[in-house]
Amino acid sequence: MFTVTDEAASVLKAVKKEKRAPRDAGIRVHLDSKPMDSSEPLTQIGFAVSDGPNWGDAEFKQKGLRIFVEDTLVEPLEDRTLDVQEDDDGMRLVFR
User: Fold this and answer.
1) Domains of the chain by range and CATH?
2) Cβ-contact 41, 35 below 8 angstroms
3) Using alpha carbons only, how large is the chain's radius of gyration in Å?
């Protein structure tokens, strides 16, 4: 599975609080837009507050968060780190 930095965990916890999600809700990591063909890289990964995993999702806990990962992303995100990056548009979550 991937690692979540303290900064990324803080952002995700703030989103849960803003959405007034139940305490046991988690963050679902999913493919937000699919590539046109299998030779193209993943175009975008989305994050959503979710009461539970979808069928087939991997589930793990880290830094006080329940995290659900869409089955198609488990392997591509293996050994990656979810972090926060600041740019001209503000903060965004990125995988390194």
Assistant:
1) 3-35+43-95 (2.60.300.12)
2) yes
3) 13
Count Cα atoms within 13 angstroms, Cβ side, for 77. Answer: 25
DSSP secondary-structure letter at 54? P
* Dihedral Cα 32, 67, 4, 15, nearest 10 deg: 70
pTM value? 0.84
Nearest Cα neighbor of 63 from 28, 16, 13 is 13
Q: Under 8 Å CB-to-CB from 38, ≥6 apart: which residues?
A: none
The overall longest dimension of the chain from CA atoms, in Å, is 39
Question: Each residue's pLDDT tens digit in the chain (96 positions)?
Answer: 899 999 999 999 999 999 999 989 999 999 887 655 555 555 689 999 999 999 999 999 999 999 999 999 999 999 999 999 988 888 889 999
CB contact at 8 A, 30 and 77 = no
